[in-house]
């Protein structure tokens, strides 16, 4: 039986009260590709709405904190930390986004990490859409997860610090 379905086939939130609390970390990544001029303007601080990466960083953190408000079967989790990182990839006209979300609890923070990356990318899009509607958000994925009964997950082919 699927864990988010009851015996009648209806959606349910999984009971996690019996689970042991463990330190849990999830790392997610994604990218946003844009025109060369857009990337240059972000780097030079010449986007009319302000410092794009600073705003995207705060938005990503907020996104992680609000995950259970948007994903119906997600538990409301006490997040102990969120680290956001942005890597400017000039040859490919991309900004690579990484979120590492941490908690000590009974369930993991994979959805929170994925949400943080998604919201950061959407924020970059929103702040730059006046000059570049061709931006593409892509490759949002979980790259690492630790803690809990299932232990460590590492996406094959991904380099992970720590």
The unreliable regions are none
In CATH, the architecture is 2-Layer Sandwich
Which band does the percent of strand residues land in?
25-35%
Give the CA-CA distance, first to last residue: 35 Å
Strand order of the largest sheet: 2-3-1-4-5
Mean pLDDT equals 91
Helix content: 25-40%
Radius of gyration from CA coordinates: 17 Å
Largest sheet geometry: 5 strands, antiparallel
Shape: elongated
Would you tell me which CATH topology applies? Alpha-Beta Plaits
Number of contiguous helices: 4
The structural class is alpha+beta
Order of helices and strands: EHHHEEHEE
CATH class: Alpha Beta
Write structural notes for this entry.
It contains four helices and five strands, in the order βαααββαββ. The protein has helices spanning 36-44, 52-65, 67-70, 110-128, and strands at 22-33, 79-89, 94-105, 136-146, 153-154. The protein has a single domain (32-148), classed as 2-Layer Sandwich (Alpha-Beta Plaits), CATH 3.30.70. The protein has 162 residues and is an alpha+beta fold. This is Cyclic pyranopterin monophosphate synthase. It is an enzyme of class 4 (lyase).
Write the layout of secondary structure elements.
Blueprint: E1 22-33, H1 36-44, H2 52-65, H3 67-70, E2 79-89, E3 94-105, H4 110-128, E4 136-146, E5 153-154
Antiparallel strand pairs: 1-3, 1-4, 2-3, 4-5
Helix pairs in contact: 2-4
């Amino acid at each position: 039986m699927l864990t988010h379905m009851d015996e009648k086939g209806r959606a349910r939130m999984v009971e996690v009260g019996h689970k042991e609390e463990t330190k849990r970390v999830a790392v997610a990544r994604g990218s946003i590709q844009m025109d060369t001029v857009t990337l240059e303007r972000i780097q030079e601080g010449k986007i009319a709405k302000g410092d794009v990466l600073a705003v995207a960083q705060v938005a990503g953190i907020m996104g992680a904190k609000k995950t259970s408000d948007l994903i119906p079967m997600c538990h409301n989790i006490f997040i102990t930390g969120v680290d956001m990182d942005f890597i400017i990839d000039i040859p490919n006209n991309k900004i690579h986004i990484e979120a590492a979300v941490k908690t000590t609890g009974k369930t993991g923070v994979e959805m929170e990490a994925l949400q943080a990356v998604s919201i950061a990318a959407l924020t970059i899009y929103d702040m730059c859409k006046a000059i570049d509607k061709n931006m593409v958000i892509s490759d949002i994925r979980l790259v690492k997860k630790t803690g809990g009964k299932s232990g460590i997950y590492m996406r094959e082919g991904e380099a992970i610090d720590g």
